[in-house]
Amino acid sequence: MFDAIEKLKEYIGYQSVSADSAYKEGMGQTRDFVAKMLGDLGLSVEIVNTPKHPIVMARRTGDPSWPHVVIYGHYDVQPVDPIELWETKPFEATIKGDRIYGRGAADNKGPQMAHIAAVAELLEECPDLPLRITFLIEGEEEVGSPSLLPLLEERKEELSEADFVLLSDTLSPSEDQIAVTVGLRGIVDMEVELVGPKSDLHSGLHGGAVYNPLQAMAEICASLHTPDNRVNVPGFYDDVTEVEEWERDELKELGADMDAYAASVGVDALHPIAGYTPFEAIRYMPTLEFNGLWGGYTGEGSKTIVPAKASVKITCRLVGNMKPDVVGKQVADAILSRVPKGLKAKVKMGHKGVPYLVVPPDRPNTPAGQSEVLANAYRATEAAVTDVFGKKPLFLREGGSIPIIADVKRVTGLDSVMIGLFLPEDNLHAPNESMSLEVLKKGIQVSKRILKSVAGV
Amino acid sequence: MFDAIEKLKEYIGYQSVSADSAYKEGMGQTRDFVAKMLGDLGLSVEIVNTPKHPIVMARRTGDPSWPHVVIYGHYDVQPVDPIELWETKPFEATIKGDRIYGRGAADNKGPQMAHIAAVAELLEECPDLPLRITFLIEGEEEVGSPSLLPLLEERKEELSEADFVLLSDTLSPSEDQIAVTVGLRGIVDMEVELVGPKSDLHSGLHGGAVYNPLQAMAEICASLHTPDNRVNVPGFYDDVTEVEEWERDELKELGADMDAYAASVGVDALHPIAGYTPFEAIRYMPTLEFNGLWGGYTGEGSKTIVPAKASVKITCRLVGNMKPDVVGKQVADAILSRVPKGLKAKVKMGHKGVPYLVVPPDRPNTPAGQSEVLANAYRATEAAVTDVFGKKPLFLREGGSIPIIADVKRVTGLDSVMIGLFLPEDNLHAPNESMSLEVLKKGIQVSKRILKSVAGV
Predict the structure, then answer these.
(1) Residue A184 near residue A401, CB atoms below 8 Å
(2) Residue B310: its chain A contacts at CB < 8 A?
(3) Chain A CB within 8 Å of residue B274 CB
(4) Which residue from A421, A443, B33, B443 has the fewest beta carbons nearer than 10 Å?
(5) pLDDT at position A283, please?
(6) CA–CA separation, B152 vs B404, rounded Å?
(7) Domains of chain B by range and CATH?
(8) What's the ipTM?
(9) A297 pLDDT above the threshold of 80
(10) What residues does the Peptidase M20 dimerisation domain cover (chains A, B) (predicted)?
C-alpha cells in the first residue's frame, strides 16, 4: 500500500536546490529516490542526462490503442534563504495540524505526489489498467527548465504520440475553489544599459552640462506607459486576442473583492490598464514591468555625482498571439528610438516564452478537432473536482508564465490539464512553505478519477 | 630654509583618511605634523577639539592695526580605493618628472603647502612683517566639515575681526590659465523612497494590477525636468539672479571648445538648460541631479517581480539667492504631489549649503563698502598670477559647492580669495592623485606676493 504522506515526508527530506551547486549530492539523492519510487510502481525508469540535473522518465507502456498520459513534475526546489525565518527545518518535513511543512511541500513535491499516489493506488486496484503513463520529472524547473526543450525535441516522436499532459504546478484561490489553469501568459525579458559620460562626474563641476543617465533612464521608462497604464510601444497590442464570454463568466464566479485583494498585497489602490478590472488585466492583458532599476550611488549618505550609466530590467508578459521575438524587438526599438543625444543604449534580450491557451471542451470556441481523450480528461476533471472538493472548478487563465507548457504544445502538439493544488497560504518560494494534507488527499482522489476516466474503466 | 617639497613629501606620507576610523592613528600623526610645522614657523598653535578630528589653528598675532588674513586648508584626504589602480603607493610621495604623486597631493596638502611655504619664506625674509595670520587647518573636509560651523560660531568674535580668507582648494583650467573662484553653487540633497506593495510581488501573478514602484519612480523623476532641461518644480527659479556682463566676458575668455569638453567627459552631445551654453549652465544656473536610483532586482539574470519599493538620491545645486530649505521643500512638495495612488513616499533631507558669490574690486557691481584689504588682496592676486604664471587669472564662478565658504561669510562676514592650484589632470578623489611641482612653486610665489601686498611691504 503506497503511503503518500510518508513518501512526501521522505521526498521533502532530500535537499534538492537546483540553483546552488552545493546541493549536487542532494540533487542526486532526490533523483534516486524518485527513480526508485516510480520503479517500485512497476514502471521502467530512465535517467536522461542533461548538462545540469538529469530528468527522470518513467514509463508504463502498453497497447498502442490505450490512451497515453504524460505526468509532469519537478524534483528540484527553491533555495531556503532566509533560513532564519523558518520555524521548522526546511529539509525535515514537519506535520503541524493539517499541514506538512518543508521546502518543496507545495512546489512541487506535494502536488506532484498526488499524481504519483493516484497512479500507485490505481495500479494496485487495477493491475491491468488500459492506460499508458509517462512520468517526466525534471530537476531544473526552478532554474528555468533549460534542458526540457532539448528533451522535447529529442523525444518528439514518442511524446507527440501521447494524448495530453497532466500536472499540478499552478495555484488555486482556495481549497473551496479549485482552479484549472487554461491559459498562461508568455514572457520576454530584457536588460537595458544606458551609458552617458565615460565615468561618474562631479555633479558640481559638470552638473547642468551633461545629460544625466538616470534622468534619461527615468524619461525613457516613464515613456513606456500612458497615463491609463497602456504600454506605449508601437504595435505592442497588435496580437492581443479577444477574450470569450465564457472566460469572463468563469472569472466573475471567482469573485472580485478588490479591497481584499489590494489589502493582501498591501496597497491602498490598484492600477490596472484602463477598461479592465485588476483580475482581468492580470489574466487577459500583456504588461511591461520594471523588475529592477539601478545606477549611480546607492549607499548610505550622499555622493554628488552625475553617474556614468543606468540599467533597467524589464519583463513583458504576453497574451494571445503575441510573439516574444516580435514584442522584444518592438520594446527594444521603442527604447532605442527614445535615447537622447549624448547617451548610448545597449539592450540584452533574456528568456522568452510564448503565451499558452487551451480551450476546454463544450465551449463556443472549442477547436473542432480537439482530441476526445483531452476532452474526456477535462470533463473528468470538472466532475472529479466538483465531487471531491465540493465545488465546480473554475477554468481560468493565470497571469504567470510556464514557458515549458507552451513549448510542449509547440513541439509535441500536446495540451496540458493543469489542476491547481497549491494555495495562496502555502508560502511558495518563501520561508515556511507548506501544503494542506487535506488538499493532498483530495488531489489524489481527483487524479485517480481523471486517470480512470481517461482509461475508460 | 623651509623646503616645501620635502615638507609636502612628509605630509603626504601621513595617512589621514577622515572617513575611515581605521585611520585614527594616521589622523593624529598628520595633525601633529601640521602643528609642529606651523609651530616651527614661530606661530602659536592651538588644537581645537571636535567630535571627530580636531582642527589645527596657528596664529601670528600682532598690532591690531595690521591686516589679518585667515589661511584655510584641510589635512584630511579622500579614501584610496580602488587601491589596485594606483601606480605608486598612495601614502608614499613619489616624484616622477615634474609631478608629485600620492593621496592628498592636490587635495589639499599640496595647494595648502603653497601658502604655508609662502608664510615660512616671508617670515624668514621679513621677521617684522606687519601682518597677522591665522591658519585654520581642519581634518573633516572630506566628510562635510561638520565641526567647522560650530568653530566659526564659537570663535566668531576673533575671526570676524580678520580681513579675508585665503585658500587654494579649487580648480584652475590649466597651468596657463589660473582661475580665481568668485562664486560657488549652494547645495541641498535629499533621498526619496517610494513604497508600493508590502513585499516584492510575482510579476506574473500580480503584474498589471499593481502600480509598479519603479514605474512610478521613473514617472516622477521624468516629471522633474522639461524637454528644454529646465527643472519642472514650481518656484525653483524664483531666486536665481542676473549674471553681470563682466562675468560673461571672463567666461568668454576661458574659451569654450564644447567638442573638446564633451570629449573630455566622454559624451557626443551636451545637454544644458535651454538658453545657456554648457559652461554658463554649470556656473550660473541651478540643477536638479539624480545621483543614485535603485529598486527591485539588480543582480545577474532576471527575477520576475513587481518590486516593493524604489529609491532615488537627488542633489540640487543652487545659485543667486536660492535657499536650501526653500528649494528642498519645493522639490519635496513637487515629488509628494506627484505620487500616484497606491504608493507612499518618504523624503529625507540631507546636506545643505547656500550659494556664495564675491565681487572683486573695480567691477560695476562691486559692493560700495568692500574692504580695502580684500580689494587689495584681489588686485594683488591678479597682478601676481599675471606675473608668475604669465597670464591674467580669470575670476570665475565654479559649479561646485564649498558650503563652508558661504558659512564663513554668513557667520564672520569674511569673503574668501580662492586661487585654483589644482588642475583637471591632478586626479582628485581618484587613484594616482598628483600635483605639478611647477604649479606648487609658482603658487608659493603668488601667495608671497599677495601676503606682502596685503601687509603693505
Answers:
(1) yes
(2) 293
(3) no
(4) B33
(5) 95
(6) 10
(7) 4-184+356-455 (3.40.630.10), 186-240+286-353 (3.30.70.360)
(8) 0.90
(9) yes
(10) 182-338
